[in-house]
Write a structure and sequence with these properties.
435 residues; globular; alpha+beta; four-stranded mixed β-sheet; 23 strands
């Protein structure tokens, strides 16, 4: 297991270009299975989770041609569906939660799709029901081997379009169902669909391949099934979670940073949420400029009550940013209640911040009150372990502000979502070493 050694208290300065979006990449890569023609994807992030999925596609028989940094051409003209029933696949597919999204394309094109119980972050219960209930409504038969935790859907003939009201606006569930429905017979209507920018990107890509999806960007999608799809070129958006991470990093380390080419129109409430923490950020073309902050003050609600920041389905705040917002609030002036509604284990990393001297009261698995130091008390360096991707980057931000040298273990969790994070931090002045 790798380790980061970080000397804290250093102010940083420079430009940062965000990587391609991890959550979009996992959807887009699965969509290459829907056509035998070539699909070229650009701005692919070079991170563990994405690379695992690319390897999985290769093992399924997808031809992979690397064109240069972040650009790959895929061709799924000779897919080995039999690989899905091998022990190798059970081990490989189970190590990556994003692998669940191969099921929809495989079911639509080949009549079957299997997946072991997916891995990923240990942040609480993460249901798969939405995915499989959608496939069943489209006509698939569900099978589950409880002993092996192996899920499957099969159909004789073609899927049939249908109306469905999703029980939750699951992003991966919506993506999976959309990819199945584009090749179904007839019309599929999905209500309470997720409408995140990355899901919009998937729909736009599928439409460029010949799909007929309307309502893109809303929670009501209508999909007219087509007989086949063709190839396309697609560019992945910049990662909004990484952009939020850099905003928080800049403020908490009192650094002057410009985040380049952020796709402002796809950031939703992220800029305004950081402004509620008192952080100044300027729109300069398609860049975000964050000046040096000597302090930042949390705004109260209109009636003077404590500010609450909570996650919600798009266009609400993505839950992936709450860990970053929480750590940034530890040095703000004022108090804030963080309410993590979706996952019951995502706030459990706060004990590590408390060990560093942060003032945090964990109310229950979903809520924490942060009482900011206003930079009057510096966090103390410590040794800690990264429990998941977003907690990992939050602890890294905390370490960059702490007095002394901190050690972060299990950094593979951070590498799952952040490309060459240590190199990019060193480029703007951070003292971070990978061992």
């Amino acid at each position: 297991m790798g380790v980061f050694k970080i000397e804290g208290g250093i102010r940083l300065k420079g430009d940062i270009t965000p990587q391609g979006a991890k959550n979009e990449a996992l959807q887009i890569l699965c969509a290459v299975l829907l056509t035998p023609e070539k699909v070229t994807i650009n701005n692919i992030p070079d991170i563990i989770d994405v690379n695992k999925l690319i390897t999985l596609l290769g093992n399924l028989g997808v031809k992979i041609q690397k064109n240069g940094a972040g650009s790959i051409t895929f061709q799924a003209d000779d897919v080995n569906v039999g690989y899905l029933e091998t022990e190798a696949f059970k081990k490989e597919g189970g190590s990556l939660r994003g692998s669940i999204m191969i099921v929809g394309p495989l079911l639509a094109r080949f009549g079957k799709g299997y997946i072991p119980k997916p891995g990923g972050d240990k942040i609480g219960r993460r249901r798969l029901d939405t995915h499989f209930e959608g496939f069943i409504i489209l006509g698939a038969k569900f099978r589950y081997n409880r002993e092996d935790h192996f899920y499957g859907v099969e159909i004789d003939g073609k899927l049939k379009g249908a109306y469905m009201l999703l029980d939750e606006a699951s992003v991966t569930g919506t993506a999976n169902i959309v990819m199945a429905a584009v090749l179904a017979e007839g019309t599929t209507t999905i209500y309470n669909a997720a409408c995140e920018p990355y899901l919009q990107q998937l729909c736009k890509m599928l439409n460029s391949m010949g799909a007929k999806i309307s309502g893109v960007g809303s929670n009501l999608l209508t999909i007219e099934g087509v007989d086949n799809l063709g190839g396309c070129d697609h560019r992945i958006l910049p990662d909004m979670i990484e952009i939020g991470s850099w905003i928080g990093l800049a403020a908490m380390t009192r650094s002057e940073i410009t985040i380049k080419n952020v796709s402002w129109e796809n950031l939703g409430v992220i800029p305004s949420t950081f402004r509620k923490l008192g952080i100044t950020l300027e729109k300069r073309g398609d860049d975000i400029y964050i000046p040096t902050h000597e302090n930042y003050e949390i705004k109260t609600d209109i009636d003077g009550s404590i500010l609450t920041i909570a996650d919600a389905p798009w266009p609400g705040l993505t839950p992936d940013l709450l860990s970053i917002i929480l750590v940034v609030a530890t040095q703000a002036k004022g108090d804030v209640l963080i309410h993590q509604k979706m996952f019951e284990s995502r706030l459990f990393f706060v004990d590590k911040l408390i060990d560093m001297g942060a003032k945090i009261m964990l109310c229950d698995p979903h809520r924490a009150v942060i009482m900011g130091h206003n930079f009057e008390s510096q966090l103390k360096a410590t040794t800690m372990s990264s429990p998941d991707i977003r907690a990992g980057i939050s602890l890294l931000i905390a370490a960059l502000t702490a007095k002394g040298t901190s050690t972060i273990q299990n950094i593979e969790q951070i590498d799952r979502g952040y490309e060459r994070i240590d190199e990019r931090l060193r480029a703007i002045g951070a003292n971070i070493i990978r061992e």
